[in-house]
Amino acid sequence: MAKRPLVAVSMITYNHEKYIAQAIESVLEQVAPFDFELVIGDDASTDKTFDIVSGYAARYPDLIRVLKSGPNVGSQRNFFRTYLECRGSQYIALLDGDDYWTYNHKLRDQVALLEADHSLSMCFHTAGRTVEGVGPASPWPDVVIPAVTSLDALLRYDYIATCSVLYRNAYQIVIPDWAYGLRIADWPLHVFHAMHGDIGYITDEMGVYRLHGGGIWTSQSAHTRMIWNLDFLERLSTYLDPKFAVGIREGQIGCLDAWRCDCVWNSDYGTAWKAALAAARLRPGLLVKPNFIRGCLGIAKRQAASKFSRGT
């Protein structure tokens, strides 16, 4: 049986003909003192994506494997089946077909970090987050993150860009059946790995997460994204040890707060109040917190100004 490469890169794609070549090239440009492979899961694309992917696989048969769907299996199953195809390697990196890497020593540096610290179950790096057609990329995460974080922190806020992660494949991660019914996949997979060790962070920006109208996540409304995240966190509440209940609750509050902010931005003040009150029900102590009070006052002021401008 042939020895599997040290690193496998899991790439999912669907109708990415505009982007897929750049994603693949950014993997081929990696320079590392070890073998790696690229496993591409195409979910029955209806454009030229599969033709492009097949062309690369024909040129690089020792580096690229392609999984093709007969019927479309959906992004969730495509994500997990492609990840599971990488399980023969010691490390697994993720890169969606519409994102790309910008540093050709990315894999080398991330493997070096995990090799040096076996308490880490995974690591990630800063990524540029760019809105297609709208100026330069902004860094993600957009808050200060310590060099090492834990599962508890990850439950409160998903600060890991998919294109930035490298997992240690040493835990025989079992994907629970309920995960296939979710509408998000990367945050759950981060959590399944973080259950086994800490998370290392490299501050260097080494990839780009592209936001565009055809993206599964970015094409959804803030309300839909909030529902998807809350569904995941609710599932975790019965899956994880009860000691993580506070982290899960804070993650739920964070989702509701992001929804509230989006509603205010779009002048949907009635829904903004619903989001604020839902957060307060989860943690009543918010009602006396200065940030929460300021947020509520902000809703009230904007709502009043809107009514005044309409003459009502």
List keywords for this structure.
312 residues, alpha/beta, 2 domains, 10-stranded mixed beta sheet, 10 helices
Verbal overview:
- This protein is α/β, with parallel strands linked by helices and 312 residues long.
- It folds into two domains: 7-211, Spore Coat Polysaccharide Biosynthesis Protein SpsA, Chain A, CATH 3.90.550; 222-310, no CATH class.
- Helices cover 42% and strands 20% of the residues.
- The protein has ten helices and ten strands.
- It has helices at 20-28, 49-59, 75-84, 106-116, 151-156, 186-194, 222-239, 245-265, 269-282, 290-310; strands at 7-13, 36-42, 64-68, 91-94, 100-101, 120-131, 134-140, 148-149, 166-168, 198-211.
- Strands 1, 2, 3, 4, 5, 6, 7, 8, 9 and 10 form a ten-stranded mixed β-sheet that branches.
- Strand 1 (7-13), helix 1 (20-28) and strand 2 form a beta-alpha-beta unit.
- The termini are far apart.
- The mean pLDDT is 89.
